[in-house]
Specification:
Elements: E1 2-3, E2 12-31, E3 34-54, E4 60-64, E5 70-87, E6 90-99, E7 116-125
Antiparallel strand pairs: 1-2, 2-3, 3-4, 3-5, 5-6, 6-7
């Protein structure tokens, strides 16, 4: 993702290359019309960032160069429990879980200091 271009008259330019990887490990079991699943997972985010501003003469003043961008990296764990009711080919699922708070190396420490609980309700079709 790139915003702005000093060479074309913008006051600043910013570039970012975001990558994300998510890994999940699940265990599930069905009991007649009820299903139960346990999941643990890990998400990893990596981004290279460059930034520059326009000088008083309109030239590029590099804050973080494009050829040597700053690398930002963060990762977090999660765990979830999933209970589903099975009706023929439909699964009505209720999920509850916890996800670790995310911190960057440049954190201002103003973010949440603990993890976050989440929930979801869904309908799945199984063929």
């Amino acid at each position: 993702i790139r915003y702005g271009n000093v060479a074309q008259g913008d006051d600043a330019q910013f570039g970012m290359d975001l990558e994300a990887a998510s890994f999940r490990l699940g265990l599930s079991k069905s009991f007649v019309a009820v299903g139960l699943a346990l999941t643990i997972g890990w998400d990893h985010y990596l981004s290279d960032v460059d930034f520059g501003i326009a000088g008083s003469d309109g030239s590029l003043v590099t804050v973080v160069p494009q050829d040597s961008p700053a690398s930002l990296s963060a990762g977090r764990w999660l765990a979830a429990v999933d209970v589903s009711y099975i009706v023929l080919f439909l699964n009505i699922a209720l999920e509850a879980g916890w996800q670790e708070s995310q911190r960057l190396l440049t954190s201002s420490e103003d973010e949440l200091t603990s993890g976050t609980f989440f929930g979801a309700l869904g309908i799945r079709v199984s063929l």
